[in-house]
Amino acid sequence: MSCKTCTYLIVLVLFLIVDAADAQDQKIGFIDSDVIMQQMPEYSGIEQRLDLLSENWQQEIDVMEEEIAELEREFEAREILFTDEIRQERLNEIEQRKQELDQYIEEKFGPQGEYYTRQKELLEPIQRLIFDALTRVAERDSYDFVFDRAEDTRFLITREEWNLTDDVMLELGINETGN
Q1: What are phi and psi of 31, to 5 degrees?
Q2: pTM exceeds 0.85 for this model
Q3: CATH topology assigned to domain 3-171
Q4: Distance from C-alpha of 177 to C-alpha of 179, rounded to nearest angstrom
Q5: What is the pLDDT of residues 45-96, one digit of tens each?
Q6: DSSP string spanning 137-159?
Q7: Which of 14, 72, 116, 143 has the most CB atoms in a 10 Å sphere around its CB?
Q8: According to DSSP H, which parts of the chain are helical?
């Protein structure tokens, strides 16, 4: 199948989907879960806990970086006095400390790091509440599709009438000025 044929099939499928959506009069809405979370009192406590955790780890990283910088300054100041063997030992020690620092940063802040694991654990109950409230709103008002604009979904144009963020916040008992 040629690329031209693939493009034609994709366009045809999209037209069929749009046509079917029009025929069924489907209802589509969106929320901004970030806005909702910002209004939830539980979120600020989680945010503070994560900030404290992050600050403590950052202090440890700062100490490790200063120790490495001190080792490098000491090495540069005395390098001419070292034998080749001692010079290599010191360079190896500095490199080992840098690797330990990189490993520590990865363990704490990397994609599989403690920060993100802890963040997921703490936010999951709040996200569950939002999802449950959204489900109630969507079922009550007969929405077929609801997107979250806070995630990777990008809306270039939206009609505010389809924004369900306030409805979900009301379902959670949150008013717009905070609870």
Answers
A1: -130, 170
A2: no
A3: Protein Binding, DinI Protein; Chain A (3.30.910)
A4: 7
A5: 999 999 999 999 999 999 999 999 999 999 999 999 999 999 999 999 999 9
A6: HHHHTT-SEEEETTTT---SS--
A7: 143
A8: 3-24, 33-39, 41-78, 84-109, 114-140, 165-171
